[in-house]
From TrEMBL:
The keyword DNA repair does not apply. It is found in: Cell membrane. PROSITE patterns: ABC_TM1F, ABC_TRANSPORTER_1, ABC_TRANSPORTER_2. InterPro entries: AAA+_ATPase (IPR003593), ABC1_TM_dom (IPR011527), ABC1_TM_sf (IPR036640), ABC_transporter-like_ATP-bd (IPR003439), ABC_transporter-like_CS (IPR017871), P-loop_NTPase (IPR027417), Type_1_exporter (IPR039421). It comes from Brevibacillus reuszeri. This is Multidrug ABC transporter ATP-binding protein. The chain crosses the membrane at residues 15-34, 54-72, 135-156, 162-179, 248-268, 280-301. Residues 336-571 form the ABC transporter domain. PANTHER family: ATP-BINDING CASSETTE SUB-FAMILY B MEMBER 10, MITOCHONDRIAL, ATP-DEPENDENT PERMEASE MDL1, MITOCHONDRIAL. It is a multi-pass membrane protein. Residues 19-303 form the ABC transmembrane type-1 domain.
Amino acid sequence: MQTLKQLSWFFRAHWKRYVIGISFLFLIDVLMLWPPRLIGETVDSIRNSSLTSAALTQTMVILLVLGVLLYVMRFVWRYLLNGGALILERALREKLFSHLTRMTPSFYHRKRSGDLMAVATNDIPAIEQTASTGVLTLVDSLFMTLLTLGVMVTVIDWKLTLAALIPMPFLAWSTAYYGKLLHDRFYLAQEAFGEMNDHVQQSVSGVRVLRAFVQERADVEAYRRVSEKTLERNVSVSRIDALFEPTIAIIIGFSFLIGLGYGTYLVFTSAISLGDLVAFNLYLGLLIWPMFAFGWLVNVLQRGGASHKRYSELLMEQPDVQESANPVTDVAANTVEARQFTFSYPGTDKPALSDISFVLEEGDTLGIVGRTGSGKSTLCRSLLHQYQMSKGMLFVGGVPIEKLSFHALREKIGYVPQEHLLFSRTIEANAAFGRPDASHEKIVRALALAEMKGDLAQFKDGLQTMVGEKGVTLSGGQKQRISIARALLTDADILILDDSLSAVDARTEESIVRHLRQERANKTTIITAHRLSAVQHAQLILVLDEGRIVERGTHNELMQANGWYAEQYRRQQMEQDVTG
């Protein structure tokens, strides 16, 4: 019942649909009480030899009309209640998807993809079933039971009714006992399903690595263990699920046994008529569905409760970064500034960045270089405000980042990450992802600036070439260049390229950098790179080491300083001369 209370917001929003559907259910339950009484009276008329053809015809016509009427009314309530449940499922999916798009990277570090998929594919349908099957069985079993028992007590015989209900307390105990077991086991089964989903997702995404290290058999064996665990937990759910129906059938069988035995005795003692006994057994037959429905209701509610718990736990997660109460929504300047910026990732004590300070004027280019793990990407992600940080340390357009609205900040900054994600769409759609309304000419020009035009001529369908999942059909360099074209097409005031030229050769890199300088002469650009030639034109270059700035200046100044930058630059130039 707790699950239905938690869904009360939906029932209130669609109360008309549910009121009409439940009203039809109630009318059906009332009409269902008529045929047993008619049949019982007909049996008494036969026994008394008082049945006429007119009376028999009238009874048959009434039963036929009732059958048609019940058919129509059942269609109406099924349409209303099941349709409402589908609306709920859509609302839950939209709410979940909206919530996931607001979460920060730390959330996805904690949560496995398989668990998120399990909530969307398994838990939401279980909740939806609660709003359809759960409501149906709750209302129908309650109404039908109360109405049928009322007629059996008042019209037939209260003693016979009471005797037939003796086994019912056992039904209440067994459903409560099985229900608790089912809730706990279904929750564990859903967790196991999430683990299995996560394993499949990782295996499919990393299939190239698996093959490269000849780990196919080991991964299949690992999947077998995960799937066996999922199977065992689902079988444990099925064991409890399978006990519901036989238990209810046995209890109902005892009710029929008592009703038939004691009812026969009452007929022989003339306490009730034979027609009353027939009607009583027909009414007892009407109780079969409510009794089964009651067990089914417990099953559905427990599954829905376990799923709703997982769903609610997911929605209770809050983004680490919260937007300011009165955020700034418009920033004119394109400057970027850091004032003794220090940052640590959530859950760690060691700073990833320490005492970072710089001023990047509008139209300037900032180059960030350093060894692997020196903090280059961390600084880029910090400028996107992806993590919670100290206030008054990072500024965009003279405004502290924490005071900017998320929309304004992300509209201001174009970002090309290290991990290039392409969607299973055409090259044109991927390039225009940030500007879906961009013209064909602008898309072609952006791809040309990213040095992708020559590659397009090699594809049979050109711009309409379908890209496999995550760009699996393209090379690393092609994926990088499409990602750069995507960012260039947005024409953002501030562009961040996070090691986005690592997969292209030196000549292609030189062409892309030249195009960037021409196209973004009056706009701000930040480039992180391992190949120093990508940043030598920058007005300011920062050399990071273990999260600290160890060198700063222009290319010429750093070469004169004869430090790490100069040494690395000369080494790369020698390597290029040897390979070139």
